[in-house]
Amino acid sequence: MKSKFEKLTVIQNRIIEFLWRENIFSRSTFVEGLKTSRTTIYDNLKKLLDRDILNREKLHDGKRGRPHELWSLTREYIDDVEGG
Hints:
Arc Repressor Mutant, subunit A; globular
């Protein structure tokens, strides 16, 4: 496994395992599914994004307010884990 994918924290591993099942979630889904605070989830999602393990997609619904963010595993990470 590539070195940038090594040495993940427990919460980061839990996020990846959670994503491995469905591969796309909002932050709220992580909070509910992992029983962890929004701030902790976001901090770790950002760290995984910075390490190119996750993708973030922002969805604007045309209304006012912040867009929804959906998180998924990168193809590079999936290929690395699967040995491809």
